[in-house]
Design goal:
The chain is built from 22 helices and two strands. It is mainly α.
Length: 423
Amino acid sequence: MLEESCTLPIIESIVSQHAEEAAFLWLLRDAAIAAPHYSLPDLADLDERVEAHIDGLRVARDAGWASCAEGLQQQESGEVFAAAVIALEGNQSRRLQQVYATVASAPETLRGLISGIGWIDPQRLKGKIAALLESDTALWRRVGIAACAVHRVDCGEHLSKAIEDPDVGLSSRALRAAGETGRRDLLPALRRQMQRDDPQCTFWAAWSAVLLGDRDRAVAALKQIAMTEHPLSTRAIQLLLRILDADASTAWLRSLSTTSNRRRDLIIGCGTRGDPAYVPWLIQRMAEAPEDARIAAEAFTMITGLDLAYQDLDGDQPDAFHAGPTESAADQDVSMDPDEDLPWPDATRIQAWWEANRVQFSSGTRYLAGQPITASNCAGLLTTGMQRQRIAAALELALIQADAPLFETRAPGRRQQALLASQ
């Protein structure tokens, strides 16, 4: 056994590889937390791979940090994540200031910083977040609020002050945190912010108010956002369809069906509502519209819980269908295929399965992953479901239990598993 005073030789190329792999795997993880094909064990396994490279940087000490600092020059979120973890754990303010300077010059890397803070055990963050919450700069107060929120820690008066801040980024993050952490005492402030002349703040005020049990005032605000082209409109639709009654939900979905450019939201909305009455139409979309087939199949799975690949109900991509950027230099559309991780359904076999099993489902009852939406069923899905199902289950559970914080499905996998095992 080596004596503690002995040091192992540092191989710079390997240390550099640890930094590169940690950043790259974080990018995979950032996509995985909302992916349809990742389960909690899958996420935990991916996290173990990330942690292995982070540990390599820890062991390398100064050389590990040097590789992280070099990565920061790229101003990318994955590199910020790795550097943030090493800097925060090392208790060296100079290193942490380098991370902060990178985020200040490239605010689009903020996600990596917050993820790094969320990666670390809360006990190791003591004394570091308070300075952010008390900063004179809105960006760092926003980081402090987000840091508390991802760990589901109540930051007290800092949150109530941030909600009223004129900075939209800070205020909207604080409004979201109120719902995530169960701050029902902030409902009056949320109601005021619903009248704010900014759709982002309006949405998160309404979102949190709904989670905290005040739905009547929030519905009008959510409806207004849902009918716009705003990036949060799909979230607004999904929340509305979870809180409206059956008749109102049907009317809302019917209104979406009359708008040609909202068909995707309509399909997602059917899956969110979870009523098996929508299944025949979803199967029809799978059969008739290749551009809708995979998202319609996911909505079907959200309702029925059926794993298409496991049940041999998936098929091949249609020959004439193309999605995502092509190799042509003349093609101006470089957007990625939003459904690339979803299986292609075999509509004929799915129809046959539905005919044989539809008696198991009651029209008018809401289902999530094949089970009626109840507190116990949603709690079970947090352990057994795929990530998008788990996100839905956490939200449904929060709507049932307005006094409880929203379960954080983005937290490190092993931490989530330990928390769920203790409940």
